[in-house]
Design a protein that fits this description.
single chain, about 15% strand, about 180 residues, binds zinc ion, five-stranded mixed β-sheet, alpha/beta, elongated, 5 helices
Length: about 180
C-alpha cells in the first residue's frame, strides 16, 4: 500500500488538468494524465485520438508508453497514474499489464468507466494484479472541464447546422431565378 497524500494527489491532478486543457486546445476531448514514481513526474500524456487517427491514443495509453520508454521498462512498479477522467476498459487493462500501483482519477465516467462505475477491471481479483484506487480528486473541476467542452461542442454543432440550413435556403431561393 502506498501512503495516500491528498495534497500531492491534488498537485499532480492539477498538472493532469493542464494537460487536458492542452488536449482541448488541439481539438481533442480534454483528458490529461501524469505518471508519478517516487515523488517525480516520469511522464505526461493527453488524449490525441483525433490528431493521430488512433482509437487507442487515450491520455493513459500515451502516459504509459512515455513512462515505459523513460524507465526502459514496461513494468511501471511503484507508480501512481493520475488522470482527469475515470479510465475506460482498454486503459484499465493496460494499467494492469503495466503493474501500476495506484490509480487516482478525477471525474467518474458513468457510461464507460471501468474503474468502479460500469466495471472495475483494475480491482478484478481474477487478474494477477490489482491497483489501489482513489476516485474523485478535484472531481468538480475535472467534470466541469468535460461538461463545458461537450456543451460548447453541442452549441457549435447546432450553429453549424443552422448555417447549413440558411445556406441551403439561399440556394433554393436563387435556383428558380436561374431557371427563368
Ligand atoms: Zn481509455
Amino acid at each position: 500500500m502506498q501512503k495516500p497524500d491528498p495534497i500531492a494527489d491534488e498537485f499532480y491532478m492539477r498538472r493532469a488538468l493542464e494537460l487536458a486543457t492542452h488536449a482541448e486546445q488541439c481539438g481533442e476531448i480534454p483528458v490529461g494524465a501524469v505518471l508519478v514514481q517516487e515523488g517525480q513526474i516520469i511522464a505526461e500524456g493527453f488524449n490525441q485520438s483525433i490528431m493521430l487517427h488512433d482509437p487507442t491514443a487515450h491520455a493513459e495509453i500515451a502516459v504509459l508508453r512515455a513512462a515505459g520508454k523513460q524507465l526502459q521498462n514496461y513494468r511501471l512498479i511503484n507508480s501512481t497514474l493520475y488522470v482527469t477522467l475515470e479510465p475506460c476498459a482498454m486503459c484499465a487493462a493496460a494499467m494492469v499489464h503495466a503493474r501500476v500501483t495506484r490509480l487516482v482519477f478525477g471525474a467518474r465516467d458513468a457510461k464507460t468507466g471501468a474503474c468502479g462505475s460500469v466495471h472495475n477491471l483494475v480491482q478484478d481479483l481474477t487478474a494477477n494484479h490489482q491497483l489501489e484506487v482513489q476516485p474523485g480528486v478535484l472531481a468538480d473541476e475535472c467534470s466541469a472541464q468535460l461538461s463545458e467542452f461537450f456543451r460548447r461542442r453541442r452549441q457549435e454543432h447546432k450553429a453549424r447546422k443552422q448555417a447549413e440550413k440558411a445556406a441551403a435556403a439561399t440556394v433554393g431561393a436563387v435556383t428558380p431565378k436561374v431557371q427563368d
